[in-house]
Amino acid sequence: MMADSNVKLNLRLDRLFSSSPGPHEYIFQKVYSNPLILDKAEISLDALSEAKTLDKKLNNQYNDEFVSLVDEISKLKPNVDFEIILKHKEQLENLYLQVCRLGGEKDVYKKSIITLINSMMKSLWQSGKDDDEALLKLRDEEIAREIHFNLLESRLIAEIISEQSCIEQEHLIPILLLESPGNVKSILSLFTIDQYAQIYESSLSLLNNLDINSLVLTQQTKQNITSNFDYIKSLVLQN
User: pLDDT > 90: what percent of the chain?
Assistant: First the structure.
C-alpha cells in the first residue's frame, strides 16, 4: 500500500514544480521528466522540498555576494591597480554565470553586472591605448565575453559550465539526448575532441541498454534522441 501511495505521490509532483526553478529544482525536474532515466529512487516529495530549500538559500547567498562585491567596487579609487580591476572583472563574470543558473527574474542583476564590466573595460582600454597588442587582446576578450554570455542564456549550458553544477554525472547523457538539437550543438561546442568520444560511447551504451520501443516517448522526443545521437556520432567520425 505504501509503495502504491508513493507512486501516486510522485506522479503528482509536477503540480508542485516552480515555473522558473533554481538549479537544484531545475535538474530535479529534468530527471523527473526524463524517460531515459529509469531509476527514479531519488524522486520524492521530500527531495523536491529539499531542492526548493537549497535554491532559496543559494538565491540569498548570491544576493549577499552581489551586494558585497558591488559595494567593494564602488569604493575603488580612480588610480586603482590594474590587477585589482582584472580580479573584480573576473568576479563579475563569475557572478553573471551564477545568476544565469538561479531562475526567476534576474535581468536587474545581469544589467548591473554588464554595466560594471563595461565601466572596467573603459579603464582597461584607457590604460592600454598606446599598446596595440593590449588593445587587440581587449577587443578579442570583449568578443569572447559576448559569445560566452549569449551561451549562458541556455539554463543547461550555465549549469554544465558551473563548478557548482547540480547535474549528477550519470544524468548528463540522458538529459543531453533529450535536449533540442540546436541547444545540444551549442553545448557540445564546450567539449574537447577526446570528450566527444566519451560522450558518444556513453550515449551508445545507454541506448543499447534501453528498450526504446518499450518507452512512452513523444514523436518529438524520438526525433531529438535520434538527431542528437547522430550529431554526436558525426563529431567523433569527423575527428
Answer: 74
